[in-house]
Here is the input.
Amino acid sequence: MNKLDIENYNLEQTLLGGQSFTWEKEGEAYVGTHKDNLIILKQNANQILWQTYPVLNNEKLLKEYLNLEFKYLDTIQAIQKDEYIKIATKEIHGIRILNQDFETVLMNFILSSHKSVKGVRKLVKDISRRYGKLIKSEQAYAYSFPDAKVIASLSEKELREIGAGFRAPYLKAAAEKLVKDQEYIKRLKSSSTKEIKEYLTSYKGIGDKIADCILVFGLGRLDITPLDIWAKRVLIEFYGLDPKVNYLDMSNWYTNYFGINTAIAGQILFEYIRNLPRVKQK
DNA sequence: TCTCAGGGGCGAT
DNA sequence: ATCGCCCCTGAG
Here is the structure.
């Protein structure tokens, strides 16, 4: 395998933390797909061992996908605004935001609705195994998540049968829309966050939260923190916000407080609070 | 075996 | 603004 020296990179939390659903841990290795590429990674302290398939040694792809050029330490320094985030950044170290494929992220997050990370990963894997492309190496294999055209060609019934449940019609309609809007989307990517969000929420099955996930994880808009229940708990338990504050106001709070890299702060606080020992409610 | 909520969103009120 | 309900799985 190829070697790359890189400090402050936590593969485990980055790949399996819930921003991507196309990774599995197999023994010591992380096996995942990005578009129609298979990527195998291992972490050894400050070294990442890696290989890509079917095109071998694709360093450009790897660096782009793992976001290796990202100025991690500068960002961490910029968000040290209070004791909570300071403690969190000590405990949770090395999370990056991946540069994932837009279409895959959009479809995967539609599937994430009312599902645990583990549940989404399983569903994504089941769909990939059945309808995706097989990519093999000598040591591992994986199926890529099908592109929009393939998903659009499936019936709602097929998607239900594989486990998509009530998300099946959303997924199918989204895939059709992705195909139809292909050219429009290319231009949209350089538009304002607000405009893109408006477009995304016009999809059935995409509301505020999932739209924000797509903006951050599929388009690299780091000036947003997607508000799942954990990001909300952070605001309520650490920063004293009233639980009744609506989505948009909470979201604006993050952006106003942490600024252009609030997505990173959000990921760190999310991991931190999620791993705190909790007393059971009720 | 059974219950229950899960990193939401929709549609009706 | 609030509230059932959606489909299925893993965890208890």
Summary: Residues 113-116, 118-119, 122-123, 160, 163-168, 246 of chain A lie near DNA strand C (CB under 10 Å from a C1'). The first strand of chain A starts at residue 2 and ends at 5.
